[in-house]
């Protein structure tokens, strides 16, 4: 049988894929790693079908490895007897907690089949909120920017986990970037915010994205392939 890693999307229940909805309804147990993912899953499965997994908020590698072993030991019997699911916000393969679980299962429970159901990620969905069109041939890089980090170099970047907005903003603007921030986008019952003012986002929040563009980047879309066909 199978353990499915299901991407729930960025947080709005109606951004779950049709395939994800079908699998959630079919499996015996749905494991959720946190409050927000559980809230989305409850839109599609009964509370009695949900199982909790506890993951510590720590950078201690040994403590994290222990937590993932315990999680793998918990889900493996379900996946061997029937089908189960582990749900995560966004996509299971993009900076997701699911990757740790999958690797632990492969190492310690190799008889468990694992299948991924992709989800809409906030690092791609951001474009529809920011009004950004990434044209063919343009460079766009994904970077993490926790605790005031401010990576530079690429012409355009999506930054995620921007937990110290003022510091990241100061460093990026000094390096010649224009920066727009988005917080808790596409999350039901949350208060989303889009701004280029770092003072509006002084409070630390894990669910903050930024779109950074070098000030000298060419912002003019190239429509020549279409005009040639006119």
TrEMBL record:
Which SUPFAM superfamilies does the protein's record reference? Tetrapyrrole methylase (SSF53790)
Any single GO molecular-function term of the entry would be: precorrin-2 C20-methyltransferase activity
Q: Which residues form the Tetrapyrrole methylase domain?
A: 2-190
State the protein's name.
Cobalt-factor II C20-methyltransferase
Query: Pathway it acts in?
Result: Cofactor biosynthesis; adenosylcobalamin biosynthesis
Family per similarity comment: Belongs to the precorrin methyltransferase family.
Q: Which GO terms describe its biological process?
A: cobalamin biosynthetic process; methylation
Q: Does the keyword Methyltransferase apply?
A: yes
InterPro entries in the cross-refs: 4pyrrol_Mease, 4pyrrol_Methylase_sf, 4pyrrole_Mease_sub1, CobI/CbiL, Uropor_MeTrfase_CS
Pfam assignment, any one = TP_methylase
Report the domain of life of the source organism. Archaea
- Which PROSITE patterns does this UniProt record tie to the protein? SUMT_1 (PS00839)
Give the UniProt keywords, A-Z: Cobalamin biosynthesis, Methyltransferase, Transferase
- CDD domains tied to this protein: Precorrin_2_C20_MT
């Amino acid at each position: 049988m199978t353990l499915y890693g299901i991407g729930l999307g960025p947080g709005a229940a109606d951004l779950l894929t049709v395939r994800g909805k079908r699998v959630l309804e079919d499996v015996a147990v749905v494991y959720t790693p946190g409050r927000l993912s559980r809230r989305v899953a409850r839109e599609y499965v009964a509370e009695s079908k949900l199982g909790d997994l506890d993951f510590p908020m720590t950078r201690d590698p040994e403590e994290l490895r222990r937590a993932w072993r315990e999680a793998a030991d918990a889900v493996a019997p379900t996946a061997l007897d029937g089908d189960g699911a582990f749900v995560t916000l966004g996509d299971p393969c993009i900076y997701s907690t699911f990757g740790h679980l999958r690797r632990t299962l492969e190492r310690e429970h190799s008889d468990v089949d694992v299948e991924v159901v992709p989800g809409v990620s906030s690092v791609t969905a951001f474009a529809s909120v920011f009004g950004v069109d990434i044209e063919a041939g343009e460079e766009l890089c994904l970077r993490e920017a926790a605790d005031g980090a401010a990576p530079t170099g690429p012409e355009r970047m999506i930054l995620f986990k921007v937990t110290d907005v003022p510091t990241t903003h100061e460093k990026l603007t000094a390096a010649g970037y224009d920066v727009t921030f988005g917080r808790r986008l596409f999350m039901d019952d949350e208060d989303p915010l889009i701004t280029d003012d770092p003072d509006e986002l002084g409070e630390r929040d894990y669910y903050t994205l930024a779109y950074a563009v070098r000030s000298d980047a060419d912002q003019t879309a190239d429509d020549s392939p279409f005009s040639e066909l006119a």
